[in-house]
Automatic annotation (TrEMBL):
One of its GO terms (cellular component) is membrane. The lineage of its organism: Eukaryota, Viridiplantae, Chlorophyta, core chlorophytes, Trebouxiophyceae. Pfam families: ABC2_membrane_3 (PF12698), ABC_tran (PF00005), ABCA11_C (PF25158). The keyword Transcription does not apply. It is a multi-pass membrane protein. This is ABC transporter domain-containing protein. It comes from [Myrmecia] bisecta. GO terms for molecular function: ABC-type transporter activity; ATP binding; ATP hydrolysis activity; lipid transporter activity. Residues 586-818 form the ABC transporter domain. Its main location: membrane. The keyword Nucleotidyltransferase does not apply. SMART domains: AAA (SM00382).
Length: 981
């Protein structure tokens, strides 16, 4: 829909004012520009980190897996279990060892306990001790207990004191049974495990059986030959046993570790763009959130695909069975989808952090948490049948992190490709994993032959689905939180923003309402401004300047006219580019904060800016200039009031989108990617603004030439000087022939030559457009400004041309007198002081004036308008007496804009001091008395002796008036203030 027609030249988008490109075209142009000119090029310029992320990290980790695999196999080969054993050795059962040989046992220790402690058992035990081959067991090393309970109680109360126990069951002298008891704890000595059976269980068993046999033989009058009682064990012969590869277990955690690098790069990339204001700058130029996120996502898709292919290739090069036996597609999709889910997870987390430096710490934290979780995952928790649903919340937590599926999937693939296993085919990605009862397994013999180990609840196919689900969920959450959490300017949307129809229609800023339109002379329509949200501030308490009041009246009349139901557009209306209707901005207003914590940065501004003019907004720090520009450019939503920019309301439905298409902005701080060149910036911003793609390059070249950056156009902006960066920012603002250009302190940091050059560019740019300029350079405002407004403390204090302001607020004329003899290298200080005193006495007598400033070279006087009439005669007298008084030069000028600025700033501070109850400052005199000086007062009287003191005030960084120095009226020596306010 075309809302308003204008006769001015059309912007380079080729569309009439107020027309925004259709979404698909706009999206595609922005998406391709952001992807190709920004994200890909930034990655190419950060070559090292991109190579590490893409190939080096996977290669290093795969290599580590290879090394670990080799080390484990080498250590396995030392064991006879893994060797070719044709005739196994016989291992005799050793005697009962001394408890001292078990390093885990505490002293004093026992070799064994026995129960019950009866004459029968004592006899058997005595024989065991005496006949232990090679070592008679001392009595103190064996202990008897009445029953098993007593023995257990002793062991529990004093653990690790004995290595075994024998519990006899004496039924008759020839019917004696026994139970052996040993420590079941796994014991590991010097890189080998203690074999529990061989160490104590079998020796004890052989000893008991030997002595029982001897006893039974004795009962029958026979004698057992002790040497006949020899027991030994021998293993079966076996071929070489190859172990299963550990790759399946370690590759998941290692790939997770490798991905953390990419994860940190994504978070710091997204957060960094927000932190540096690049995101806001792009939005101000009309960037759609959809194109921003899509370009990041598309880049991640490409990176994930390349990385996954490389991991597959490296795995195959290192000849891992997991890569060779399983279908490549299964591995590729597992790695690919895992990386996408991690990228979406990074987008999601990035919405909570505002500093890129935090991203590294966050990545480290996630890495630790993820690694710990993987230790559990490697044991099959929680995706094995026995654990599922064990603790539902734990299963949910594990289910919400992408690395769970990576580890589970790689474990399955590793097990399926272990020794003797055939691997998993793509077509079996669901079937291989079954959760069957043993009866069902018995009925399905194919399972027993192929995938019998896969009693599981989550197949690879399902893991893919869940990874895709996580990617979608985290991306949607990232988009939602990106809108509802406060952005870098503290702006956010309501949580239900996506339910509002106008969000989907305009994809513009929040809370827009459809406004009624008004017929214009050309038959087109313009939007009626809305003042519905305007709060009533106590403006009456502050005296308003006459010109500001007139401007307000004039703009209010325009508003009344626009608010009428119909009627031709007046000439005045047509001449205006911007009309600001009671614009207000309050910070710190939210449902949790009290009203007292609100800060009014703009307290209701009414003014209009004409076409073909430069409107200069001046004011001390914190006056509200940037906030005004931020409201007019859609960076901040106004808290009250409205503005029409070429007939489009800031807060109408989609109005800001239409305004953006005809607007150029040079923000206060250079918002540039250090890795990109000046030319690339022009291409990105040109496409974001929706310029005709055929024109972008040509126009970029023209503008770069204008700002004298043609030669430096291919240099990265990180190597630009401050002035070059500002010039590039000005060129970007002028891209697309915008109708309204906002320049926020465009010449800050420039040398005088560059500054004058930029002034020329701005002067040229006035034609056919309106320019709003903020600056701290009074000279700049004087040279460029057609109309100048000075703001202070959130209010417009004066408005008009430079001459008008000087006439109204300047103190009249400025006279500078020099008593420094010209051309003399040796200055006679005494003579100089005398001449200076003569000049000062002359001005005191003739005009009653004290110097406003005094340097070595000049004594300056501000001659107020009340004394203007006497000035010609005084100057004639001064000229006549010049020789006598030693005057070398006299200069006369109208007071400068700086003087006007200082006067206004001072007035604003006096009002603020009065409003805040800061009525007086106190000077502590050396004589112990105090001078109470009303804020801004230039003289004070001693409370006892009546001496008059002259006070010099200065404003600090926050604009507050502070006493700088004071001195007695007639004293020439000033005293540095030690005043306390
Ligand atoms: N997002 C914000 N939240 C709270 N206060 C803010 C915010 N932005 C600006 N302000 C306050 O609003 C006031 C006006 O700030 P603004 O940046 O508009 O001043 P300015 O006139 O542009 O000053 P300067 O010349 O230093 O750029 C300041 O007191 C500032 O601290």
């Amino acid at each position: 829909m075309v809302d308003v027609m204008d006769t001015s030249p059309k912007p380079s988008t080729g569309l009439p004012i107020g027309t925004v490109q259709g979404w698909p075209k706009r999206f595609w142009q922005q998406f391709t520009a952001l992807l190709l000119f920004k994200t890909v090029r930034v990655a190419l310029r950060n070559r090292r980190s991109t190579i590490v992320r893409l190939a080096l990290a996977p290669l290093i980790f795969i290599f580590l897996v290879f090394v670990i695999d080799k080390a484990i196999r080498a250590s396995d080969r030392r064991s006879s279990d893994f060797q070719d054993v044709r005739s196994p050795a016989t291992e005799p059962i050793t005697p009962i060892p001394s408890c001292d040989t078990d390093l885990y046992v505490r002293q004093p220790c026992w070799d064994f306990f026995y129960t019950p402690d009866t004459p029968d058992t004592q006899a058997i035990v005595a024989a065991i001790k005496a006949n232990n081959p090679g070592r008679v067991i001392p009595d103190a090393q064996v202990k008897g207990f009445a029953d098993r309970a007593a023995s257990n109680a002793f062991m529990s109360a004093d653990p690790e004191k004995v290595i075994g126990a024998v519990h006899f069951a004496v039924i008759s002298p020839t019917n004696i049974g026994f139970t052996l008891q040993t420590n079941s704890t796994t014991k590991f000595f010097k890189s080998t495990f203690q074999n529990r059976e061989l160490f104590v269980q079998l020796p004890l068993q052989v000893a008991v059986e030997r002595e029982l046999s001897r006893r039974f033989f004795a009962a029958e009058g026979k004698t057992l030959d002790a040497s006949a009682w020899s027991v030994a064990i021998r293993k079966f012969p076996h071929p070489v046993l190859t172990t299963g590869s550990v790759v399946g277990q370690v590759i998941g955690p290692f790939l997770f570790a490798a991905n953390m690098f990419a994860f940190v790069l994504v978070i710091s990339g997204v957060v960094g763009e927000r932190e540096l204001g690049l995101r806001q700058a792009l939005r101000t130029m009309g960037m759609l959130d959809s194109s921003f996120w899509s370009s990041w996502f598309a880049f991640e898709v490409v990176m994930a695909a390349i990385t996954s292919l490389l991991i597959g290739a490296f795995g195959a090069i290192f000849q891992f069975d997991i890569f060779l036996k399983n279908s490549f597609g299964l591995l590729f999709f597992l790695f690919f989808l895992f990386q996408l889910a991690m990228a979406a997870f990074a987008f999601f987390l990035s919405t909570f952090i505002s500093k890129a430096s935090v991203a590294v710490n966050l990545g480290f934290g996630i890495f630790i948490v993820g690694w710990i979780m993987q230790v559990v995952l490697l044991f099959g928790y929680p995706f094995t049948p026995s654990y599922v649903g064990d603790i539902p919340i734990v299963t949910v937590i594990f289910g919400l992190v992408p690395w769970s599926y990576l580890v589970k999937g790689v474990n399955d693939l590793g097990s399926a490709s272990a020794e003797g296993q055939p691997g998993i085919r793509w077509g079996d990605r669901y079937e291989y994993c079954k959760n069957l009862s043993s009866d069902e397994i018995a009925k399905q013999p194919y399972l027993a032959n192929t995938y019998r180990d896969f009693q599981c609840v989550l197949s690879l196919g399902q893991a893919y689905g869940l990874l895709i689900g996580l990617t979608i969920v985290y991306t949607v959450l990232a988009l939602f939180l990106d809108n509802v959490l406060p952005n870098e300017n503290g702006v956010r949307r309501a949580p239900w923003y996506f339910l509002m129809p106008n969000y989907w229609c305009n994809v513009g800023r929040a809370n827009f309402r459809k406004r009624p339109t008004v017929q214009t002379a050309a038959g087109a329509q313009t939007v009626r401004p809305s003042l519905r949200r305007t709060s009533t501030l106590d403006n009456a308490a502050v005296p308003q300047d006459e010109d500001v009041a007139n401007e307000e009246k004039r703009v209010k009349e325009l508003l009344a006219h626009r608010s009428g139901t119909s009627g031709a557009m007046s000439e005045l209306e047509q001449a205006n580019a911007v009309e600001v209707f009671g614009l207000q901005k309050v910070f710190g207003r939210n449902i949790f904060k009290r009203k007292s914590s609100e800060f009014w940065a703009i307290k209701g501004s009414w003014f209009a800016i004409e076409k073909n003019q430069l409107f200069c907004l001046l004011g001390p720090n914190g006056a509200g200039k940037t906030t005004t520009i931020n409201c007019l450019t859609g960076v901040l939503p106004p808290s009250g009031g409205d503005a029409l920019v070429y007939g489009q309301s800031l807060s109408s439905s989609g109005g800001m989108d239409r305004i953006r298409s005809i607007m150029g902005v040079c923000p206060q701080f250079d918002i540039l990617w250090g890795e990109l060149t000046g030319r690339e910036h022009m291409l990105i911003y040109g496409n974001i603004k929706g310029l005709d793609p055929k024109l972008v390059r040509a126009q970029s070249e023209t503008l770069l030439a204008k700002v004298k950056l043609s030669e430096a156009g291919n240099m990265r902006t990180s190597s630009y000087s401050g002035g070059m960066k500002r010039r590039l920012s000005v060129a970007i603002a002028l891209l697309g022939d915008p109708h309204i250009v906002y320049l926020d302190e465009p010449t800050t940091g420039m040398d005088p030559i560059s500054r004058r050059h930029v002034w020329d560019i701005i002067e040229d740019a006035k034609q056919g457009r309106a320019i709003v300029l903020t600056t701290h350079s009074m000279e700049e405002a004087d040279v460029l400004g057609d109309r100048i407004a000075i703001m202070a403390k959130g209010r417009l204090r004066c408005i008009g041309s430079s001459i008008r302001l000087k006439q109204r607020f300047g103190s009249g004329y400025q006279v500078a007198v020099s008593v420094l003899p010209s051309g003399r290298s040796q200055v006679d200080l005494v003579g100089l002081e005398k001449r200076s005193q003569q000049v000062q006495a002359f001005f005191r007598n003739q005009l009653g004036l004290e110097p406003s400033d005094e340097t070595k070279a000049y004594i300056q006087y501000l001659v107020p308008r009340s004394k203007e009439a006497a000035l010609p005669a005084v100057l004639s007298m001064l000229e006549a007496d010049a020789g006598e008084m030693g005057i070398s030069d006299i200069q006369l000028s109208l007071t400068s804009l700086e003087e006007v600025f200082l006067t206004i700033a001072r007035k604003a501070e006096l009002e603020a001091a009065a409003a805040e109850g800061r009525a007086t400052s106190i000077i502590y005199l050396d004589d112990g008395h105090q001078l109470k000086v009303p804020i801004g007062e230039e003289t004070a009287t001693h409370p006892v002796n009546g001496s008059i003191y002259r006070i010099k005030w200065a404003q600090d960084d926050a604009g507050r008036l502070q006493i700088l120095e004071w001195h007695l009226q007639d004293s020439l020596s000033s005293v540095t203030a030690t005043a306390a306010s």
